[in-house]
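task queued by scheduler; priority normal; single chain, no ligands, no partner chains; default sampling; output format set to structure tokens
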Amino acid sequence: MFDTGTTGFMLLATSLVMLMTPGLAFFYGGLAGKRNILGIMMQSFVSMGITTIMWFVCGYSLCFSGDTMGGLIGNFDKAFMAGVDLNTPFAGNTKLPEFVFMAYQMMFAIITPALITGAFVNRVTFKSYLLFLILWQVLVYYPFAHMVWGGGLLAKWGVLDFAGGIVVHATAGFAALASVIYVGKRRDKESPPNSIPLIAIGTGLLWFGWYGFNAGSALDVNAVTGLAFLNTDVAASFAAITWLVLEWYLTGKPKFVGLLTGAVAGLATITPAAGFISLPSACIIGISAGLICYFAVHLKNKMGWDDALDVWGVHGIGGCLGTILLGVFAVKSMNAAGADGLLAGDGMFFVKQLVAVVGACVYGYIFTYGMLALINKITPVKVTESDEDAGIDTAIHGEKAYDEGAL
């Protein structure tokens, strides 16, 4: 009944996307100060457990079942995977079991809130983060996943997002900015990365996993799958080298962290467009990501926003940029299920992409800020000054990343 090759490929893609969350933990763990390594890594890993439970209970159903509130969110028809058995095909590709599609989409739900954590490293209590993790998914991620990927409001309007420029990166990036504005600045902003090799390991895992993130979003094995795979690698490479050369020119030093950050910016930026554009367009998007995300990080610094690990500048701006450039470069000759963008003569598609991503950013920012204010009435969001000075690894978790005495 099901195609073995397609099913096997999607299980592999699911595994690759799962690997991105530990990769993110290593990436953030290396960037964090030495007293806050475990805290930031745990925030990624705990999402793997809590989000999986939520996805089974109601998350999958709210994203991919029915259509309520005018297409803003789904319903509870598939809560606890009701009505889905071993022989139930995925409606979007009947060669694939729905169970596999459910698992694949679950990995996106796991990593999206974890992206936000890099912004408020060492400033948020673990209790408040757990509440945030639950509420943010229900109030922000689930609605946008349904509206864009679940046949909801934005999908019906004609908005496209191949693998998460709107649903993942724009919402998470602007939620990160709202979090930074709410919790305020770190007491010690000069804390350097504790391990650049750990950042490199995390980047390698993210880059590797991103092939499943983007190519897997074709939900099949065909030419579009290969296109998304190649566009992903090309954009990341162009962005990494653009960031490296620009920073080298401006600072006089070719910096490894800059190269790695540029690669992640390119990966985030190509995500919404990967399966809808040509290879030359992916090159342009990669170069644009390296330039614009670099200057977005500098704007953040100039504005005094203490987004510790540049989530807004890399993921938020990258997701927005990629979504808007999809509106420019999309061509149906690359993917018949896509659209023709501005350069192909469809200005309205460009407008739709622009309106959708701006709306996602505003919604993500406002709801996140309000959510943190609500959580703060239940349990303190920000750590005490003494806990921040001691580091959340020991103050909150009672553990250390390294046995300094043994070193």
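post-processing summary
- The chain has 14 helices and two strands.
- The longest strand covers residues 93-97.
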